[in-house]
Design brief:
2 copies of one chain form a homodimer. Chain A is of the alpha+beta class and about 500 residues long. Helix content of chain A is about 35%, strand content about 15%. Chain A has a 9-stranded mixed β-sheet. The first copy, chain A, has a 5-stranded mixed β-sheet with strand order 13-12-14-15-16, with helices on both faces. In chain A, β15 and β16 form a beta hairpin. In chain A, α7 packs antiparallel against α8 and α9 packs antiparallel against α10. Chains A, B: One of its GO terms (biological process) is histidyl-tRNA aminoacylation. Chains A, B: GO terms for molecular function: ATP binding; histidine-tRNA ligase activity; identical protein binding; RNA binding. Chains A, B: This is histidine--tRNA ligase.
Chain lengths: ~500, ~500
Amino acid sequence: DGPPCCLACATAAPLLRDVCGPGRRAPGCVCVCVCGTRDYNPKQMAIREKVFSTIVSCFKRHGAETIDTPVFELKETLTGKYGEDSKLIYDLKDQGGELLSLRYDLTVPFARYLAMNKITNIKRYHIAKVYRRDNPAMTRGRYREFYQCDFDIAGQYDAMIPDAECLKIVYEILSELDLGDFRIKVNDRRILDGMFAVCGVPDEKFRTICSTVDKLDKMPWEEVRREMVEEKGLSEQAADQIGEYVSMQGGMDLAERLLQDQKLSQSKLACAGLADIKQLFSYLQLFQVTDKVVFDLSLARGLDYYTGIIYEAVLTQAGVAAACGEAQNGAGGEESVSVGSVAGGGRYDGLVGMFDPKGRKVPCVGVSIGIERIFSIMEQKAEASAEKIRTTQVQVMVASAQKNLLEERLKLITELWSAGIKAEVMYKKNPKLLSQLQHCEEAGIPLVAILGEQELKDGVVKLRVVASREEVASESCSILHVELFPVDVQQTMDISAAELTLLCWASGRAL
Amino acid sequence: DGPPCCLACATAAPLLRDVCGPGRRAPGCVCVCVCGTRDYNPKQMAIREKVFSTIVSCFKRHGAETIDTPVFELKETLTGKYGEDSKLIYDLKDQGGELLSLRYDLTVPFARYLAMNKITNIKRYHIAKVYRRDNPAMTRGRYREFYQCDFDIAGQYDAMIPDAECLKIVYEILSELDLGDFRIKVNDRRILDGMFAVCGVPDEKFRTICSTVDKLDKMPWEEVRREMVEEKGLSEQAADQIGEYVSMQGGMDLAERLLQDQKLSQSKLACAGLADIKQLFSYLQLFQVTDKVVFDLSLARGLDYYTGIIYEAVLTQAGVAAACGEAQNGAGGEESVSVGSVAGGGRYDGLVGMFDPKGRKVPCVGVSIGIERIFSIMEQKAEASAEKIRTTQVQVMVASAQKNLLEERLKLITELWSAGIKAEVMYKKNPKLLSQLQHCEEAGIPLVAILGEQELKDGVVKLRVVASREEVASESCSILHVELFPVDVQQTMDISAAELTLLCWASGRAL
């Protein structure tokens, strides 16, 4: 066998990272996986489920419903929604049906769903995989198939209240996941457009200059300026004026100051955006999240469909950056190091109307949690920690100490299952007791119910605590009844409520 | 706007069902969905989550881990695994990378995963969508994108123990989902092959005759016989002998009788299969599931990869059949009417070896729950029942009785959220009390916390039970503290534990 060497195995064979790539394999590669994708093994699934459960709890606490849409959409549904990134869309082969593409995000399918069902207000979350034919960088959590966790509020409401809730949600989720310090950058498309206008950027260059500004979190201002002037033909003077604005960061005070700014206040668009930022911060104060939110004029975001407020959350802890194998300098670096975006979103008031035959608009604001990078961090954290991750929830192993007790084991486990107890039995007629106990230790199963000739004769089951090796058996009751552990044993054993139920059930007693 | 008329909307516009189809739309169709797929609205999601939770609980009770694999595989991974059905595989467009196909089931990706990671034993479940370019029949739960819930046991174990557990799992899930009566048909590929051999079917016709036998649940014996003789060129005598065998149904007794059958007992293959069926039934007796399991020689199953035992579960209740809009006559009809398969599986000992460079085999047995048909039934049941399905879990609505109290509402809800309480607020500066209360009734929110000038002055919050319209307020405590409901009110209100927590928390008391 050759070594695992395609990109999906980059973590296993980092030196081969540059040899294999999408569509090309190193000689001797025996992998049969798709480049840029990953399988989740049971340990990774355990981490994934924990992350999802935190996120879903937060979405539900905020009253969201959930929907689901197909993995593919009509190609025309996705066309013209993603700007330059449209080239990354996966198309299906034309096999004599419709022209289909894999979804690129969850926002466009959501807008299509609202328009098709004529829904004018809803608060929903959607957790699902999306697809982008990007250059994968697996060790940094960049895949071609990856999860997004989206929360969106659609409806005609008073300004900035739903927008503020989206930021509150990002704040809650990132705090609860305990990934280290973070910042949420906020800006507004109208402020950007107003800024471009007053700095003398020609109208037709707004979008392209905007996507250059978007690179400020990945490259220094000098390079961004060079791209604006040399590649995009902007005047040096305009670039320098933009440079002044995009270095500004602050809170409500900055919005107030800019509303007085001689140049920027000439743009009605910018003023509307600034007034909304002010309003937003007043709600964020009530939500008690202003300590992590920064009004940052360098935030641009690539997607075409945003119309108002935009935001992006970045982890800033140097420790996390190291764990993630990535150390970039954030735009507004300060002392902390950015490890890239883990959440982003904004207001898109025009998207639903693009799917409605009469163009009826439904204002929307939402946020998308980019979960793969979070998974990577959590996985590395789990590996570094001594704590063992259980991948099953088995409470008791039904074992036998002698041969020819398969029937009795199957009878006992049937009773346990029908009592709702999570139980396992080895699929062997005559397994060795040692191998049954070893399996318990490996899998973290806390209890073993042991059947033997003597127990059968006495009509008892021996119950053994794997960690402490303590054993108990009832004196004289039916095969399934054992004595309840004495209370002090329970306390030292650190067994869960479910396992206590098992013990109580086994003893035939109510708790 | 034209009426919704593509296949995805067949339930809404049943008369147009035949007008639209994959790739063709009726004139005036305004749908932007992919034919053969569906969106799940919040109500459907609530049902789906309930079904999944029942299934996952069962899988976990039996000690399964879970994995996930990408939605697409290399095309070559799927090639040659599905027999005649391979034409239904969705291919991706060649966009300069690998040739990819959407997964057709979860079994082949599982086998690929085991081989690639050199895993020789695992018990895992996997719940995910699979893709087939079949003719959709949405009202009967047949889609081009649909969920499968798979449970498989891989490893070299003593015969029939894991196989019996798979059947036990099907039994538990179908019982718990409460879909009405069901049967689990069992057969063995080796018995089928042995039967074909002793009936005089030429070796090279085994597979094609097998797929004709597979149609016995959809058409009467006469038609199946005709296809064998006229289309597939089988002798009338061989067909009639097959006809005798495939009409047989029974339990362990039938296996014993067939082991004595003069003709069938000449086939070693058949005898091995029959011995295993006998062994299987002895375990099924211990698992207490023999009342629903039938050894049925007409069961064939289409997929190529099965090597031993095969099984399929069908719902038999006439009531369910009517609800499902489908009434077929089962092969062994009796008095009950089959509504088609809801679960199926079997043993596939050769599949993993096909992905291993050295052909090392890993014996596997598994079952797949076909969930879409179950969703359809549950949805129709939910529609027929008076019970209202909640799509959110909101416990309390933070409302105001007067104008200009947005700040106070946002402050209060911030406290509720940080206490883990699921709470909502209307995104309006000055919502009407009536519309806030109406929203509670529509969404099934049980409690409203009402703020008004008087309450603020008194330093209390009024808490109102939406259903009974009872109200309470504390006498003199902080804005967040209200009196605990008297116990008798709790009882008549039928409020949940979480809501009680809310009340206790609001009152500043421990439970």
